[in-house]
Amino acid sequence: MSDSSPSAQNRLPRYRSGDRRVDQQIAELVELSAGGEHNDLLFEMIVSAIRLNRENNDRGDLKLINAALKELRYSMGVFAPYRHARKLSIFGSARTPRDHPNYAAAVQLGAAIAERDWMVITGAGPGIMAAGVEGAGSEDSFGVGITLPFEEKAAPTIADDPKLINFKYFFTRKLTFMKESHGYALLPGGFGTLDESFELLTLLQTGKTYPAPVVLLDAPGGDYWQGWYDFVTQQLLSDGLISADDMSFVKLTDSVDVAVDEICNFYRNYHSMRFVGRRLVLRVEHEPSDELLASLNEDFSDIIAAGQYERIEITPSELDDDDEPELHRIAFEFNRRHYARLRELINVLNAAVS
């Protein structure tokens, strides 16, 4: 017999269907099917599906949500065994021919980053995408494709690999790129590449994705990204539509070696970050010195909402989640606005170690 007492109801998440009997049955289903530590979230996901059907009984909308959830579930399952591997997303034109210098640069990039024990993620198609996988090899590659009637099929190197995912929607595909990547390299491309570049920078600028290295890579002697940079600085920066600090999100180069160093050195000391309460916790490989903390408090006081930069032990929330317990930590109350300055602070953390 189910427990429908008031005390049992109070143990359910606050986000509910509005029907006590339905809520109790959802709770029983969750317990029966999962019985894990994330039952509260699974409960709310089922409640959302029920409320969506009740509040918006449009079959087209329900099909969209259903397909998107299925795509995300599948993609997360593909990436799950490789969660601890660093991954570089490589963007660029699907129309780049094999004999183009940009194709050669992408092959060299894929090979060089794989030698540093990184994996690559590409859009799985031809051109720059095929080149990145060719360089890294299928064993160290993921294909995150999109189903389009006018594009070629997946590149042969990744076509039969279990790490190939084909998406119906661009938004679920983009979410996967951002969620799974630790760095980004963009080579010349068309509308899609420019869309990815500006969306990525918007997410970094607003803090909607974690800080990460972004390299704009040309073949030797190429000027595609210099033209992009000139447009951004002349049209956006000069009119105050972005700040000068925002340009610190990107590194322009026509050297694969420089690109790989920029990507890998981002994690030379800095490891990851997490908000705990009102404070931002930066996890680093090396214990921060008193001199480093003093420098941060002097040079980056503009992004502190209150207090100062402090060396701390692992927080209870991180300990409960077994979230990188072996790392050192710096905490401060970040103003949650100046993410470009936070990117510059990470550069200082990395420069502090040899």
Could you characterize what this model shows?
By secondary structure, the protein is an alpha/beta fold. It folds into three domains: 6-79, no CATH class; 83-265, Rossmann fold (3-Layer(aba) Sandwich); 270-351. 46% of the residues lie in helices and 17% in strands. It has helices spanning 6-10, 20-33, 39-55, 59-79, 101-115, 128-136, 156-159, 170-180, 191-206, 224-237, 256-265, 290-299, 316-320, 339-351, and strands at 87-91, 119-122, 141-146, 164-167, 183-186, 214-217, 250-253, 270-276, 279-284, 304-312, 328-334. The strands form two sheets. The chain has a seven-stranded parallel β-sheet, sandwiched between helices. A four-stranded antiparallel β-sheet has the order 8-9-11-10. Helix 5 (101-115) packs parallel to helix 11 (256-265). The chain is globular, with a radius of gyration of 23 Å. It starts with 5 loop residues before the first helix and ends with a helix. The relative contact order is 0.08. The mean pLDDT is 93.
